[in-house]
Amino acid sequence: MGRNFRAARVFQTAAEATGIPLFPSGGSTGRKVGRANGAPPAWFKAVQMVQPSETLTRPYPIQHSPPDARGRRPRQLYKPTKIVFPEDELRQTFYRDHPWELARPMSLVELYGTDARYRDWSKGVRQPGMQLSGECVVQRQLWLMENQGLNKAQAYDKARREFYSLRQQEDIERRIAVEEARMVGGYFGKSLLQVGVELEDKQFEAWKYWATASIATRNAQAEGAVVVGASEEVEEEEEAVVAE
């Protein structure tokens, strides 16, 4: 793959497009090239004085992991390394243990893009203005590991205990709200258990219909085979009588 010098030739390209001489001192080298398409752009003088440059050497990317202690020959030296954050491993552990947390609706909208600066994880998992989710457990666990000297397992257990307590409070509040609404005539439709039972009954009826049809088909095939076998025996007896 060859070098790309277009960044270093911006001034020459603009001069050719506008018809401005590359060397305004005069002489044979001061002739105009290209067509005069109007006034030069606003950045033309600045680029003429300080032209852009391009690094002709391939820089060695910053390494985010320690080198291999086994002394193997390094491979793909100039390939950008994978950026790994401390929260990645903690987040993977939490969602592996709680896969159904991914099914909950989550808000990814931030007000100004700097909402994380206003979180104080020393006060617990619950943060004002932030929805309770697995990210709260991850950030709380990371804070405990960095500020209270707890190891990964201890911080994870403490953050999970706080998270479970808050989830139980949310479930109790939701259940009480539903009961209060039903007392004044509120209707919330069928519960998840009722919907599941109806789906099971529907599948059972479909299987029952299929099983009945299959049994009837097999019985009909068996009766047909018996009738065919009996007719063949009668024909053989008649042939024997005729032969005698």
TrEMBL record:
One cellular component term from this protein's GO annotations in UniProt:
mitochondrial small ribosomal subunit
Q: Where in the cell is it found?
A: Mitochondrion
Q: Which InterPro entries match?
A: mS23_dom, Ribosomal_mS23_fun
Q: Which UniProt keywords apply?
A: Mitochondrion, Ribonucleoprotein, Ribosomal protein
From which domain of life does this come?
A: Eukaryota
Is the keyword RNA-binding in the record? no
Q: Name one Pfam family in it.
A: MRP-S25
GO MF entry, a single one: structural constituent of ribosome
Q: Name the major location.
A: mitochondrion
Signal peptide residue numbers: none
Give start-end ranges for the coiled-coil region(s).
none
Q: Does the keyword Ribonucleoprotein apply?
A: yes
Q: Its family?
A: Belongs to the mitochondrion-specific ribosomal protein mS23 family.
Note the subunit structure.
Component of the mitochondrial small ribosomal subunit.
- Name of protein: 37S ribosomal protein S25, mitochondrial
Q: Which organism is it from?
A: Echria macrotheca
